[in-house]
Specification:
The complex is a heterodimer of chains A (about 110) and B (about 350).
Chain A: H1 3-9, H2 14-22, E1 27-28, H3 29-39, H4 48-60, E2 64-70, E3 73-78, H5 80-104
Antiparallel strand pairs in A: 1-3, 2-3
Helix pairs in contact in A: 2-3
Chain B: E1 2-4, H1 10-22, E2 25-31, E3 35-40, E4 46-52, H2 63-78, E5 82-86, E6 91-97, H3 110-150, H4 153-184, H5 188-197, E7 198-200, H6 206-218, E8 221-227, E9 230-235, E10 240-245, H7 247-256, H8 274-285, E11 289-294, E12 298-304, H9 326-348
Antiparallel strand pairs in B: 1-3, 2-3, 4-6, 5-6, 7-9, 8-9, 10-12, 11-12
Helix pairs in contact in B: 3-4
Classes of the chains: A alpha+beta (about 110), B alpha+beta (about 350).
Chain lengths: ~110, ~350
């Protein structure tokens, strides 16, 4: 994978992380918003503008791709590269959490 | 019903449209950005948003932009927004009912707000002035050509007026772009908060500014920031005394202490902060905190009222005649007069 992508998405913003998580299975715009809202128990509420700005960027960087398109409704899914970056971010977060717990205590 | 209004602020416009909705008027059309058409409806608590899908004059829109455009308009409509009007600048006006689930804005995180603000800024600060400048160039070359061929100065005068107009419009566009950028980087709630706490104020003498700040202090407000002529305050329980410092005041103080202020001769445009550092050091020793800088890099300090001392009490000449657009006008008129007189004298000889 290009180093540029690594640098850009490591660390990744919360919204990017959750969007990629939502696209492990094929999903569409509104479905992504719902998935993230439910998973985070309303902690993260992605705005529409936020979402389509990000979807555009993720498609351009080839972290997700368009599975199909039906009357203008696009369905997305994560790509191989996206999967790798997502797993990397999960690892990074785990290590960050462990370090924090060690110093701050549980 | 038709109303004519001109807005430079997007949030102001949205607030107005929402207040119209509360009175039972829904936007149905907008022309040239100033002519608003409304239809009657049930008074309701609505939210408006404006999105522009064509933020680029360059005819070669990138593939991503085209894709993003379609995704965007689909997604917006899927989440409950309804398109009510579009204007000639390709801005789309969306409306939906205000809900309690927090989805009352299209953009709700810092990054995407900033990206959107950047698009507007590029349009108003770079692309629009570029187009205007191109037109000016064409017109000027054309008039020079006519003047050479026909030796008719009349057209040159027309060109001068045209150029003045174009330059004025470009500057206006650039200022507007900067304002929109700063505005759109904030959420609507932040913007409302800031508007509540900020005041526009121009002053002629430095004493006026200090008096103003002390007045605000009595009203339990403390200065947080200053942008241009707008001063932003915050409620405060503590009371302070305000001070200011300028480069010339600093030099005077140093002269009195028989020290010399070492000028930085490389700093031709006076943008260096050497004197700021010296001043802040002195202020720190006196227990004052830095608030912000105002016009011409003047520093504002404050100190809790209980510890207030007398300092720098004769700072004057804060704003002189070299402020704002008057000097440009004055210089232009002055220079024009001088040249005109010289020309006339040469004509007579």
């Amino acid at each position: 994978m290009e180093e540029k992508l690594q640098k850009k998405y490591c660390p990744m913003t919360e919204t990017t992380f959750y969007t990629l998580l939502a696209l492990l299975e094929p999903n569409h715009g509104y479905g992504i918003m719902k998935f993230v809202r439910e998973l985070t128990e309303e902690r993260i509420k992605m705005g529409t503008g936020t979402l389509y700005t990000m979807l555009g960027r993720l498609v351009e960087d080839e972290l997700i791709y368009i599975v199909n398109e039906e009357d203008g409704k696009k369905t997305y899914q994560i790509t191989e590269d996206g999967h790798i970056l997502l797993k990397q971010e999960q690892e990074r977060l785990k290590k960050q959490c462990e370090n924090g717990e060690r110093i701050l205590g549980e | 019903m038709v109303k004519w209004k001109f807005f430079t602020s997007m949030y102001e416009e949205i607030e107005w449209l929402e207040s119209m909705a509360r009175q039972g008027w829904m936007l149905s059309d907008i022309n040239l950005g100033v002519r608003y058409t409304f239809t009657q409806c049930e008074p309701a608590e609505m939210v408006y948003e404006v999105e522009n899908f064509a933020l680029s004059f360059s005819k070669n829109a990138k593939k991503q932009e085209l894709e993003a455009q379609r995704t965007a308009s689909d997604l917006i409509e899927q989440t409950g927004w309804k398109l009510v009007a579009r204007d000639e600048g390709m801005s789309s006006y969306y409306v939906k009912e205000r809900t309690n689930d927090g989805y009352n804005e299209l953009y709700d995180d810092v990054e995407s707000r900033r990206l959107r603000a950047e698009k507007y800024r590029t349009l108003y600060c770079i692309e629009q002035p570029k187009e205007l400048m191109k037109l000016t160039l064409i017109m000027t070359i054309f008039s020079i050509f006519i003047a050479l061929v026909d030796f008719d100065r009349g057209f040159l005068i027309f060109d001068l007026v045209y150029t003045l107009l174009m330059v004025g419009m470009s500057l206006y566009s650039i200022y507007g772009g900067e304002l929109i950028y700063r505005e759109l980087c904030m959420s609507r709630a932040e913007w409302k908060e800031r508007k509540k706490n900020s005041m526009k104020y121009t002053f002629k003498r430095s004493e006026d500014l200090l008096t103003y700040l002390q007045q605000r202090d009595k009203a339990d407000l403390k200065l947080v920031e200053c942008e241009g002529n707008t001063y932003i305050f915050e409620p405060s329980r503590e009371h302070y005394r305000y001070y200011m410092d300028t480069k010339s005041a600093l030099k005077q103080r140093m002269k009195q202490k028989r020290q010399k202020y070492q000028e930085d001769w490389k700093d031709m445009n006076q943008i260096g902060t050497r004197w700021h550092e010296v001043s802040m050091q002195e202020a720190k020793e006196l227990g004052m905190e830095v608030v912000c800088t105002v016009k011409n890099g003047t520093l504002i300090y404050r100190c809790p009222e209980s510890k207030a001392v007398d300092w720098n009490t004769n700072v004057t000449k804060l704003t002189g005649p070299l402020d704002g657009w008057m000097p440009y006008l004055g210089a232009g008129v002055g220079l024009g007069a001088v040249l005109g007189i010289i020309w006339a004298i040469m004509d007579m000889m």
